[in-house]
What does this fold into?
Amino acid sequence: MARYLLTRSLMLCLSLLAASLVVFLAIEVVPGDPASYMLGMNAAPDTVAALRDQLGLDEPLAWRYLHWVFGMMRGDFGVSYTYKVPVAGLIADRLALSLPLAGLALALSAALALPLGLIAAARRGKAADAAVMGVAQIGIALPNFWFAMLLVLLFALRWQVLPAGGFPGWSDPVAALRSLILPAVALALPQAAILARVLRSALIETMDQDYIRTARAKGLSRSQALTRHALRNALIPVLTILGMQCAFLIAGAIIIENVFYLPGLGRLIFQAITQRDLIVVESGVMLLVVTVILVSFVTDLAYALVDPRLRRRA
It folds into this structure.
């Protein structure tokens, strides 16, 4: 296990280094000068040059990259060009909303998908299986932003049981959680549909294995063999989807945050792109990339815990 952990940790470090280079270079080659954008089209050239010097945009590219990377390692993400405040504070404020939203959506997704996948696999070829898979197909096909607007029309405007948008802050936890219910459901529905289909397929494939037939021959019912033996071995592809969903729910909630007017990390990055606030874009995107890589790393460790063959192979 120690060797497996060391190998994965080395791959994690190399992935982070490569990702930082790609993110920095991709944003630096984007056309447009932040100083010119901030001062307007009619700004004097010497004023633009002074602002570029103040922002550090005239420094060599390699020096700016090293300064940015080592600053992030110390927790210093720089100062926003637009808001004139530390980027770390901006991101921390937005993560206070985005992380609970992603966690709530992931919990809802797993809570819906696991029983539905088990029911569909246990009733393979029957009406319950067809009903679950039909609902899952609809969930995959529906765009989450359209479903979000439908939720607003029903629960906020017609029945008036939940707020239509906005975030009151965590000073009132009950009001804050109520404001996150609809966006969390809108994010969780397509993810739950995907997860349920993957779990069903993995369980059906596992149920055809020899050790399941042996367990059935020893007297276990189909449902007992499904929950006691097949479920654990079917979790490996499910863990992959859960890891991907966790990263998506943090990084891919920009549309949902805009539908519900939530001041999350995705909306911050979107606004920074429109304002040419490169330091916010670089730091925000890099944080999302780090989240995806770390989730993949944790998923690999979860593989090793679920499947001992991976540890022996490593």
